[in-house]
Amino acid sequence: MTNLPLKNNRIDHYTIIVPNGKEVSEFHEQVLGYPFLELKNINTGTAPQGTYDMANYIMEWPDHSGRLLVITEGLTEASIFHRFMLKYGQGIHHIALEIDDVDAAFATLQENNIRLTSPKVVTDMLSGLKQCFIDNTDTGVFIELIERKRDVSAVPDTSQKGFFTENNMSELAGTMQSYLEEGGGSRAVRHSDIDTYSYEKQLTDLRLSTFTIEVPDVQRALRFYADVLGFTRAISARGEPELYLAQEPNIRFHIRPLGREGFNCRLRCTTNSLESAPGTMDGNPFRTQVIDDVSYLDKQKSGYDLEIAGAGVFQRAGTSAATAA
Ligand SMILES: [Fe+2]
Predict the structure, then answer these.
(1) Ligand 1 center to residue 13 CA distance, Å?
(2) Is the pTM of this model over 0.85?
(3) Which CATH number does the domain housing residue 268 bear?
(4) Residue 274: which H helix or E strand, with range?
(5) In terms of residue numbers, what domain contains 257?
(6) Do 55 and 145 fall into the same domain?
(7) How many A from CA of 163 to the centre of ligand 1?
(8) Cα 216 to ligand 1 centre (Å)
């Protein structure tokens, strides 16, 4: 393919869509150690003037690398992300790769007939922030490309942690419209009004380790990630194919056959902080399932399929592999 693969720098952020952004952001901040940066409420066009239809909780990854988690909640029945959740369920919506030149990448993708969600790059005129989405058919999740200006002359500085613009967020939301046109509406979405809870202890060294993405065609997806997006192919310790970005060898992408409908991406993190934070989960009101030292978190709290691997991190002393009540 001409001028492909793209040359990627690194992951910039991943975005989840949930019905209860505040609760999920507090869980990430207080238990998982994601620093909260900003709440960005915007109106993508479905709310009356002066009100909002989309809340975005911008969190930094717990490794303080400047990479981000965006927790998105559609605030009205009509909002795109509320409707998206009705159709596809809650979970990881996209993973964003920071690259140097989104305009050039966009042109290259078009030349190679790679499907994008919009006919042009979404560009914030003031800051120069550029973003676009690659269709999720081959990749399982939407892949966003984002260009952040890091040179000092850029005003405002888009490389600031958590920098997004209302213009771009609103326009990008609009590019998802076509994914809502057929079917859907069958999933119940419950907006949570649960009181916030103060968690007692926090994991101190959570590291993002593996995105597992389910796709209809594994071989096709492996080729797409490698030949279009520039991922390196490898074989995991368990003998299965995996992918990684050259500059981020510690974050692996596993591609698996599609097991169910809707959102199909889960994240595994690792921690060694059991010793430094014993009893982290004691008394905290969420349920986990623990199987072979991997804890599966309650999606109501985490917002998406999130696993924590580590020696019994979420187990109370003396319990064995079991569902914690
Ligand atoms: Fe994004």
Answers:
(1) 7
(2) yes
(3) 3.10.180.10
(4) none
(5) 207-323
(6) yes
(7) 11
(8) 23
